[in-house]
Amino acid sequence: MLNKERKFKVVSLFTGCGGLDLGFIKAGFEVIWANDFFPDAVKTYKKNIGDHIILGDITKIPSSEIPDNFDILLGGFPCQGFSIANKNRSMEDERNFLYKEMLRIVKDKKPAFFLAENVKGLLSMHDGQVVKMIIDDFKKIGYEVSYKIVNAADYGVPQKRERILIMGNRLGVKNEFPKPTHKSPLENNQRNLTNDKLKPHISVKEATEYLADLWISYNPQIKDGRKIHNHIARTNVQDKFWGRKHKVNQHEICDYLKHWRNKKGISTKKVDEYFGYKHTAGHWFRKDNNSGSIPNPDDWWKLKELLEFDDKYDKQVTELELKEIKFEQSLRINNWDRPSDTITATGPEIHPNKKRRMSVRECAIIQTFPDDFVFEGSLGNMYKQIGNAVPVLLGEHIAKTIKKIMVENNV
Ligand SMILES: C[S@@+](CC[C@H](N)C(=O)[O-])C[C@H]1O[C@@H](n2cnc3c(N)ncnc32)[C@H](O)[C@@H]1O
Predict the structure, then answer these.
(1) E strands along 7-77, which residues?
(2) Which of 213, 282, 335, 398 has its CA at a distance of 20 to 30 angstroms from the CA of residue 68?
(3) Whose alpha carbon is nearest atom 16 of ligand 1?
(4) Residue 192 belongs to some domain of the structure
């Protein structure tokens, strides 16, 4: 059989509900074994993909229980320990070491390729030491290793989602990452869309608008000839929120804080340390409407302990009142005419023009799951599975690129 016709075999770790796996399946791969310890994700996987997923903790599964002779090991090893959103990023966090499970299985089974996916924050963690440690460990067992940051929006996913891909092969060939197919229309000035054949990014509106007025329901519904499952959403969107009572000027506050910080001779790094890396205090000393910010009241009082500034702005910064929410002003609002912000595993965003959060189905569409992919479990666990996933379409692009290298090298 020509290897072009051979179905390359996949073993998948930290599989979740199977976003990455589905991308590989769409590209013609066969997943023969998968694993996760999150029961609802395993249920979803079984319902939509297959029974080859094992529920269990990978640290307790010996390599002998995993099939031999597969071509690629996939694993989006958990990112909590690495995430920049995490307050206590630490080398000691045992979740950081779950990549060792991938390393063990690659070492024991020697697949031609492995592919790991993780949050971008992995790169900067401990000044790059963590990513270096991971790469060195795979190199030591004979793999050619490379990494790349990719943004899902550049592959036709209606979502800005930056992730690091770490790829390795033991064929001694160059790893290749998929080439973007889309780009931001804002880049049109620099690059001509028609010349380089890149299509414009897909917006949330294009992808999900047809569901905006559809009734939220646990029952499947038909809309525009499509069967809509899981169009359910959190509706705990308050009409009011606590906002500042007085007008504050970010530039003024920034100058003021800088003045007191200089007076005390304290660096931003020291301020960060004082806050226990909980904050990137740099924002408070940055006079820039896009990335600068004013401390919230709790931070203000804590900062005052450190910088010992006077009372000039105390009232302005810390007095709050209950205000009406203006949806278009909400911080967590979804971009409607652009790709969505990253769909996370915790709270879905508020719908741009509805008093509800994005529905499970809308999040699934933004993650490029097909309409007939049905999620199992509680509402919160559905959102979690979707937020954890690699967008299916991005997975498919990665898979096609790897398949090409496999075919060219007679794997
Ligand atoms: C970021 S998600 C991966 C999602 C997946 N790549 C996708 O595309 O849908 C990480 C997964 O690792 C699982 N996990 C974490 N620790 C585990 C362990 N010790 N054993 C098995 N699964 C684990 C979590 O339950 C979670 O589903």
Answers:
(1) 9-13, 30-36, 53-55, 72-75
(2) 398
(3) 78
(4) no
Task: Given the residues 17, 79, 254, 363, select the one marked as catalytic.
Answer: 79
CA angle 111, 117, 118 (to 5 degrees): 145
Catalytic (active site) residue 254: no
DSSP β-bridge partners for residue 167: 115, 146
Question: 190 versus 208: which is more confidently predicted?
Answer: 208
Q: Which structural domain range is residue 74 located in?
A: 9-185+378-408
For residue 13, give the amino acid letter.
Answer: L
Q: Which CATH number belongs to the domain containing residue 32 in this structure?
A: 3.40.50.150
Show the CA angle centred on residue 86, arms to residues 248 and 41, nearest 5°. Answer: 120
Q: Quick one: 258 and 393 in the same domain?
A: no
What are the tokens at 65? 């229980």
Q: Are residues 244 and 105 in the same domain?
A: no
Any domain includes 229: no
Ligand 1 neighbour 111 (Cβ under 6 A): no
The two tokens of residue 87 are 């307050």
State if residue 164 touches ligand 1 by the CB under 6 angstroms criterion.
no
Q: How far is the CA of 399 from the centre of ligand 1 (A)?
A: 19
Q: Write down the residue that tokens 């002998």 correspond to.
A: 64
Same domain, 274 and 398: no
The three-state DSSP-derived secondary structure of 161-230 is: CEEEEEEEECCCCCCCCCCCCEECHHHHHCCCHHHHCCEECCCHHHHHHHHCCCCCECCCEEECCEEECC
pLDDT in tens, 297-333: 888 999 999 999 999 999 999 998 887 765 444 444 5
| Ligand 1 centroid to residue 97 C-alpha, Å | 13
* pLDDT per residue as tens digits for the range 340-383: 989 988 877 877 767 788 999 999 999 999 999 999 999 999 99
Q: What is the CATH number of the domain that holds 267?
A: 1.10.260.40
Ligand 1 lined by 390 (C-beta under 6 Å) = yes
Check pocket membership of 38 for ligand 1, CB cut-off 6 A: yes
pLDDT tens readout for residues 56-86: 999 999 999 999 999 999 998 875 554 444 4
- In three-state secondary structure terms, 113 is strand
* Secondary structure letter of residue 36 according to DSSP: E
Q: Which residues pair with 113 in a beta bridge?
A: 72, 169
Domain assignment present for 336 = no
Whether 168 lines ligand 1, by a CB cut-off of 6 Å, is no
